[in-house]
Amino acid sequence: MSNKQVCAFLGDDASPEVMQPTIDIIEDMQLGIDFHYPAVGADAKSTTGSLFPEQSKQAIDAADATFFGSTSGNSTAALFYLRWGKQTFANVRPSQWLPGYASPMANPENIDFVIVRENLEDLYLGLEGDLEDLAALNYYSRHARANLADLGPGKYAIKTITERGSERVIRHSFELARQRGQKRKVTVTCKYNMLSTADGLFLDTAKKVAEDYPDIDFEHFIVDDFLCRMIAHPEDLDVVVTPNLYGDILSDGAAGMIGGLGLAASGCYGTDYAYFESAHGTAPDIAGQNIINPTATMLSAAMMLDYLDMQEAALRLRQALGSVYSEGRILPRDQGGTASTTEFCAAVRALL
Ligand code: IPM
Ligand code: MG
Question: Which segment, 37-41, 150-154, 316-320, is predicted with the most confidence on average?
Fold first, then answer.
């Protein structure tokens, strides 16, 4: 069997402190994965004159998947390429509480759900500009009774929901509910009362897709109501699917419920590509201190191993992490422990 090829970007600020040890652990497991490290950001700029050179793009294309460290700006071109260039439309963000996680909830035991965030459209197209550029449209708001032209100076951002974009991410979510084989339920959430046209299309598309999955329960809630339910009864949820911006926000909230962003794994899937990156940022405030929690990155790596058809290795990595937490002796600071990043990684490694 030929080796799998993975493109790795270590990221900025504190990100390399969790990316490198995670890669070391995977290398240690001897799974037949070759890691490649294309240049990006300031390093790439100094050697090639570009923040995201053509060779790095080709390296991403040539790999089976990309393992991406959080970036604070310099490498965003690579991130945007991984999203729009590779059309990774389904951002899957699991929140599962494990014994040892410092959840702020009184009863976190049964929290085990996944938020699937549409990853390419909605307000994330970056279609923004000056209101006056739209004034000529003579466009009336249906409830504010205002004409765009009369609003005066301001800015706009366009929210775009397409049939194709909605359908593929919703289908991905139903497939995921089947594959998880747990509560076998998909919950759709967006603001379909206020945005009855755009978010209405997302909901209508979901209702249609649901007909193809009679074995999966389907429910929908308006996003504000959903958030209240997510906090009050997270144990009712299985797979939640939502447009981009709500998904960005809700998934951080879901991470907060199990114990914070240090535990928040994430994978972005297209039809023929996927990349994996913790949901958290670069943590500049703790960079260089060797205290960042590597769990989110390790769990994202486990999702990558699943994607690469290395389920057994993914399970082993998750079990090792789970054991370190349930044992509770060596815990990262954000989970109430005193372990350094290095100590925590060593504890996981020792169990593999
Ligand atoms: C995330 C992040 C990104 C997003 C930022 C860094 C652009 O918050 O992956 O959740 O909003 O998608
Ligand atoms: Mg985010």
Answer: 316-320
Q: Which fold has domain 103-121+163-258?
A: Rossmann fold (3.40.50)
Instruction: Let me know if 21 is exposed, middle or buried by CB neighbors in 10 A (0-12, 13-18, 19+).
Output: buried
Which atom of ligand 1 is found nearest the CA of 281? Answer: 6
Judged against a pLDDT cut of 90, whether residue 265 lies above it is answered with: yes
Sequence-ordered list of residues with C-beta below 8 angstroms from that of 325, at least 6 positions apart, any chain: 98, 99, 100, 101, 331, 335
Probe residue for ligand 1, chosen from 248, 249, 251, 268 as the CB with the greatest number of ligand atoms within 8 Å: 248
The Å distance, Cα 48 to ligand 2 centre, comes to 30
Distance 169 CA to ligand 1 centre (A): 18
- Please tell me the predicted confidence (pLDDT) of residue 49: 92
Three-state secondary-structure class, residue 7: strand
Q: Mean pLDDT over all residues of the chain? A: 96
Judge whether 1-93+262-352 and 103-121+163-258 match in fold: no
- Strand pairing partners for 112? 96
Residue 32 CA to ligand 1 centre (angstroms): 31
Domain boundaries, given as residue ranges, for the chain: 1-93+262-352, 103-121+163-258, 123-160
Ligand 1 centroid–CA 119 distance in Å is: 10
In which residue are the tokens 């978010």 written? 199
Task: Provide φ and ψ at 7, rounded to 5°.
Answer: -90, 130
Amino acid at position 5, single letter: Q
Q: Does domain 1-93+262-352 have CATH number 3.40.718.10?
A: yes
Do 144 and 151 form a contact (C-beta atoms < 8 A)?
Answer: no
Q: What pLDDT score does 73 carry?
A: 78
Residues with CB under 6 A from ligand 1: 248, 279
DSSP letter, residue 174: H
Can you tell me the distance from the alpha carbon of 340 to that of 69, in angstroms, rounded to the nearest whole number? 19
* Residue 190 and residue 243 in contact, taking contact as beta carbons nearer than 8 Å: yes
Whose C-alpha lies nearest to ligand 1, atom 7?
76
> Which atom of ligand 1 is closest in space to residue 244's alpha carbon?
12
The model's pTM is 0.97
